[in-house]
């Protein structure tokens, strides 16, 4: 909860209080005028009489996130701002100039404040972006968190990262270095999708690929982009402390970090990073702008899937700095023979249950081919949901797509596979990773048998879960069914 403090409340300050009082979080006003304090109290505002320039009065508030200095006297505002800086140096400070400040006074107030409001400005309109739900204050907190890292920051994408995760990590790396913090963009797994490889190569992105079990003690801080929990779709220890989380996926569990930016209404994490860059007044270089723009386009399927106003605004900000000719080259790479083979097996092995299609492609050499196969199969007449899966290195990888259906695919995948692996995603695009467990002990020459066993379990589980979930908001009634599926899976194993 955001804690707010107003020191001094003149005529303009009183008008601001009327807006701030409705924001979520707390607000306390300190003013010398007894009548003004009484008026505020009758209006339901927490107000106390005291000297707003006195550090002891300011220190009575143990923690302040956002502070306003809004008296009518410029000199009193200057003293109150200094008191606030002495007691709460990390608070985001908004200062009003007051009546008739001198040029020197304006310069002093501007230097003390994070946001300086001159009498000629449109005050209320200028303050509205500072609500706790907007990026201005959030960006200030992100910048402060990055600056506080005492050493190198490790920025971790999810396993086998996609363009949105890659671009977001590179952009955050640049933000960290802009405040003097060394940073490195890292990932586990592989970048095997041909478009993703072309994306990294053409933009000459410097990413560090870590092996499972790698020593990460060299990092003084950790950041997660495009996912929100260590040990879930990455190879980090589950209990490791995290400093920064930036993600657009809706979490299904509490997210813990020093700084958290989760905006599930936005279509891409790249949009969030673009927003932070714009708030800081940083013009991204061509490489970063092109990467973020491509990340947005991929995750929103060229602005047709789960897109928001924020995604369009981010694209508008990035486009003048991006190299669109590079994007054209990224989007037309050659397709490997392995990918064509995976798509072919997905077509041959497909099973239909009404409008829902599932297909097991068996052993994988390139897990990114699953997503391409799921997309291709979704074009079949009469099909609204596709699930394509295969196995490699002791894990079953699952990719699912949906269109024109009431099924929330992300929630459906969590219900079907969340208790036996990691699963989730969006309403129309989701995935899962499931350890083979005992099934992984089947010998290599028995791959056909393994495909049959895994195929039956995954397909039956998914079909039954879709049938039992008539709508995107009807999830609680399926808990017992999911538990029953777990028992059946254990019996099959």
UniProtKB/TrEMBL annotation:
Molecular functions per Gene Ontology: nucleic acid binding
All copies of domain RCK N-terminal, residue ranges: 7-97
Pfam family for this entry, one: TrkA_N
Annotated ranges, domain DHHA1: 354-443
SUPFAM superfamilies found in the cross-reference section: DHH phosphoesterases (SSF64182), NAD(P)-binding Rossmann-fold domains (SSF51735)
Start and end residues of each DDH domain: 154-296
BP GO annotations: potassium ion transport
PANTHER family (alphabetical): BIFUNCTIONAL OLIGORIBONUCLEASE AND PAP PHOSPHATASE NRNA (PTHR47618:SF1)
Name assigned to this protein: NanoRNase/pAp phosphatase, hydrolyzes c-di-AMP and oligoRNAs
Source organism: Haladaptatus paucihalophilus DX253
């Amino acid at each position: 909860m955001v804690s707010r403090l107003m020191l001094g409340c003149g005529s303009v300050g009183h008008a601001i209080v009327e807006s701030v009082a409705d924001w979520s979080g707390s607000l306390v006003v300190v003013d010398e005028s007894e009548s003004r304090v009484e008026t505020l109290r009758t209006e339901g505002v927490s107000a106390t009489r005291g000297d707003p320039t006195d550090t002891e009065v300011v220190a009575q508030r143990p923690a302040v996130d956002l502070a306003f200095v809004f008296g009518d006297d410029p000199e009193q505002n200057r003293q109150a701002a200094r008191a606030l800086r002495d007691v709460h140096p990390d608070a985001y400070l908004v200062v009003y100039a007051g009546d008739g400040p001198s040029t020197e006074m304006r310069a002093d107030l501007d230097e003390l404040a994070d946001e300086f409001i001159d009498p000629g400005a449109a005050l209320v309109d200028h303050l509205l972006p500072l609500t706790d739900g907007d990026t201005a204050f959030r960006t200030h907190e992100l910048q402060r968190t990055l600056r506080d890292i005492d050493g190198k920051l490790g920025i971790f994408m999810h396993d086998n990262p996609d363009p949105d995760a890659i671009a977001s990590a590179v952009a955050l790396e640049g933000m960290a270095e802009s405040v003097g913090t060394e940073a490195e963009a890292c990932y586990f797994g592989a970048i095997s999708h041909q478009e993703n490889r072309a994306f990294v190569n053409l933009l000459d992105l410097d990413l560090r690929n870590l092996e499972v079990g790698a020593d990460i003690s060299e990092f003084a801080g950790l950041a997660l982009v495009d996912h929100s929990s260590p040990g879930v779709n990455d190879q980090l220890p589950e209990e490791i402390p995290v400093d920064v989380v930036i993600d657009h996926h809706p979490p299904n569990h509490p997210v813990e970090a020093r700084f958290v930016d989760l905006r599930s209404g936005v279509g891409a994490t790249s949009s969030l990073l673009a927003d932070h860059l714009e708030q800081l007044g940083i013009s991204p270089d061509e490489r970063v702008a092109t990467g973020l723009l491509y990340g947005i386009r991929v995750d929103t399927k060229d602005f047709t899937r789960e897109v928001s106003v924020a995604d369009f605004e981010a694209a508008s900000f990035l486009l003048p700095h991006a190299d669109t000719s590079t994007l054209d080259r990224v989007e037309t790479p050659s397709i490997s023979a392995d990918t064509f083979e995976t798509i072919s097996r997905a077509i041959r092995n497909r099973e239909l249950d009404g409008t829902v299609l599932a297909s097991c492609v068996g052993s994988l050499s390139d897990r990114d081919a699953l997503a391409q196969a799921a997309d291709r199969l979704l074009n079949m007449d009469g099909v609204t949901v596709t699930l394509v899966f295969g196995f490699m290195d002791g894990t079953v990888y699952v990719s699912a797509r949906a269109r024109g259906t009431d099924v929330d695919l992300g929630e459906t995948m969590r219900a079907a596979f969340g208790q036996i692996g990691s699963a989730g995603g969006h309403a129309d695009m989701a995935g899962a990773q499931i350890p083979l467990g005992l099934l992984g002990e089947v010998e290599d020459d028995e791959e056909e048998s393994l495909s049959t066993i895994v195929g039956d379990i995954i397909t039956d589980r998914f079909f039954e879960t879709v049938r039992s979930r008539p709508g995107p908001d009807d999830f609680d009634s399926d808990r017992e069914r999911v538990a029953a599926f777990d028992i059946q899976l254990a019996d099959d194993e």
